[in-house]
Write a structure and sequence with these properties.
The complex is a heterodimer of chains A (about 290) and B (about 290). Chain A has about 290 residues and is an alpha/beta fold. Helix content of chain A is about 30%, strand content about 20%. Chain A contains 11 helices and 10 strands. In chain A, strand 4 and strand 5 form a beta hairpin. Chain A is globular. Classes of the chains: A alpha/beta (about 290), B mainly alpha (about 290). At the A-B interface, helix 2, strand 6 and helix 3 of A face helix 7 and helix 8 of B.
């Protein structure tokens, strides 16, 4: 097995058993190995962020956990139960609910109907359509509008609401920032504490590294389908993140969080400074709208 | 006055065609399946009605109470097995599979029910009679009844799709299957429900076909499927009201065509069908396809 192996003693053990565990997950898209023996453990109440560049395998990982891709190897445990072969909709009703990349609202349905679909097979829990309307103040007045007429940021809010009303135990957020203006992204992430307060656990995938480091309690960096860094945001240096993100050989100080295994054949990335990467979200600004 | 009569007769026939077509339209609208076995399934509905009437002696007009549920169950079963398996491969596979289904049904009926024609005779004299408007226009109660049934079916479907829980799920799945799965919706079950409803309307189409004319094992592809197709395309694919409009336009075109030359009725219908395909491929009520 190549690359990174999780550091054995984990200070998060005190939080009880992990809610979501992924062991040695390998996923192929045709001949391409999109994920190569990825492991992770998400504990209750965490905000676990997967970061990495385009094509690192982040979304594949999330979609595999949601059941939309079939792994060639590895297991997915949810609350101790093996979910690897469970159908996606059963995972959703079991408590693993994803906000998919690109929102994926039901475009011909109204805002309220989108939420009603999300609530159809909901678990019991604190989230109701009314509560979502409280979280996003504008939504109630526009509940009869067709969702395809909303702006990108509004659609993202409806997509989050649609996931929340299912009362997930783990909320999977796939690239919330994609295609949205930075100020809108900030506003959406500002909602996260209110969502977490209801006892949710969040596993998110984010290309905007600075955003991820701000909100996450634990991060894991992927590069070409392998883990290159894992730890608490406060324990990793910008240099380590940069090295893990781009696969820079020898750029990071060894040691610390189990070390960074440079992937085979990794090349030096374009000279983009850590400042840029971490501060102004230059990795997403080119796609912001 | 003759033209007025043609249009009225065309509208009445259009109700029958709309009834033929709305199951086809629904299946395409929800799961993008073009069901080439649609007409044959309507014919099966007719044979089931024959059997039900022979066994239970239920009045012909009330046979739908038994035939519709039987066909709905058949629809759910077929969807969850054969059609879903084809859908899992590709949309094109569903064309081949439903074509194969059509061949199997037709030959199965020839084998077990013979090539003889059957009809569902009504002994009720009111239904078989007609009333006249003025001196030249005769309106058959049976065709009027079928038109009313078609309108009621379309109204009911429209209401079901827009207001009921399953209707909402059907529209959601039609928009985005994967996103529906992420909300815990088993789209295969939802497709099954949609197919059950579509087959329920197919049963009505089969009974209506048996009431208005004769049917034999080949009626399904010879007439019902073709007329249903033409009605759906003229009206606009996936739109239920469009289907009613398409059926009526087809019916009127056929009437006027046969008025011009008694053997040219069907030809006129297909000319209108072709004209719509060329001039307005999205159909009369359809929106332009989004890129």
């Amino acid at each position: 097995m190549n690359g990174f192996s999780p550091s054995a003693p984990d200070e998060r053990e005190g939080n009880g058993n992990p809610l979501l565990e992924v062991h040695d997950l390998t996923v192929h898209h045709g001949q391409l190995r999109a994920l190569d023996h990825i492991s992770l453990r998400v504990f209750p109440g965490e905000v676990y962020a997967i970061i990495g560049a385009n094509g690192a395998g982040k979304s594949t990982l999330l979609r595999t956990i949601a059941g939309l891709h079939h792994p060639t190897e590895g297991t997915i445990l949810f609350d101790g139960k093996n979910m690897t072969r469970v159908r996606p909709e059963r995972r959703a009703t079991g408590g693993i609910v994803m906000v998919p990349e690109g929102r994926r609202l039901f475009g011909s349905l109204t805002v309220e109907e989108n939420l009603q679909v999300g609530a159809t097979y909901a678990r019991k829990g604190p989230w109701t359509i009314e509560r979502v309307y409280e979280l996003f103040g504008w939504m109630k007045d526009r509940r009869s509008q067709r969702s395809e007429q909303l702006s990108g940021g509004e659609q993202q809010s409806v997509a989050i609401g649609r996931a929340l009303v299912a009362n997930p135990r783990v909320l999977l957020l796939d690239e919330l920032s994609l295609g949205l203006a930075p100020v809108i992204v900030q506003r959406i992430y500002a909602m996260l504490p209110q969502i977490l307060a209801t006892g949710l656990t969040v596993l998110l995938v984010e290309q905007d590294v600075s955003q991820a480091l701000q909100v996450a309690s634990h991060i894991q960096c992927l590069l070409e389908g392998r883990t290159t860094l894992e730890g608490r945001p406060e324990d990793v240096t910008p240099q380590q993140v940069e090295a893990a993100y781009f696969g820079l050989v020898g750029a990071a100080a060894p040691g610390g969080l189990g070390g960074i295994g440079p992937p085979e054949g990794a090349e030096f990335a374009p000279p983009e400074s850590t400042e840029q990467l971490l501060c102004n979200g230059s990795t997403t600004s080119s796609r912001g709208s | 006055m003759q033209w007025v009569n043609d249009i009225i007769q065309g509208i009445l026939t259009g109700g029958l065609y709309a009834l033929f077509a709305c199951g086809l339209s629904l299946l395409f609208g929800v799961m993008k399946v073009i069901n080439l076995a649609h007409g044959d399934l309507a014919v099966i509905g007719g044979y089931v009605a024959l059997g039900v009437i022979a066994v239970t002696h239920v009045p012909v007009l009330w046979s739908f109470l038994i035939v519709v549920p039987i066909m709905a169950v058949l629809g759910y079963a077929l969807q969850r097995t054969v059609i879903q398996a084809a859908l899992n491969r590709s949309i094109l596979t569903t064309l081949i599979v439903t074509f194969g289904l059509s061949v199997v049904i037709e030959n199965g009926l020839l084998q077990f029910a013979s090539a003889n024609s059957h009809s569902l005779g009504v002994n009720n004299s009111i239904i078989t009679s007609s009333f006249s408007i003025g001196s030249q226009i005769q309106v058959a109660y049976l065709l009027l009844l079928i038109l009313v049934v078609a309108v009621v079916v379309i109204l009911g479907l429209q209401y079901f799709l827009s207001a009921s829980r399953y209707g909402r799920l059907i529209r959601a799945v039609a928009d985005d299957q994967e996103a529906a799965q992420m909300s815990g919706v088993d789209y295969r079950h939802v497709f099954g429900i949609a197919a059950a409803i579509a087959f329920g309307t197919v049963a009505l189409a089969g009974i209506a076909s048996g009431l208005t004319s004769q049917f034999s094992p080949t009626t399904g592809t010879d007439t019902i499927l073709l007329f249903a197709f033409a009605a759906v395309v003229i009206g606009g694919i996936g739109s239920l009201w469009g289907t009613l409009l398409g059926g009526i336009v087809l019916g009127v075109a056929q009437q006027i065509g046969s008025q011009i030359n008694s053997s040219d009725g069907f030809l006129a219908g297909y000319i209108v069908f072709l004209a719509v395909l060329i001039l307005r491929p999205q159909g009369l009520t359809g929106r332009r396809a989004q890129s």
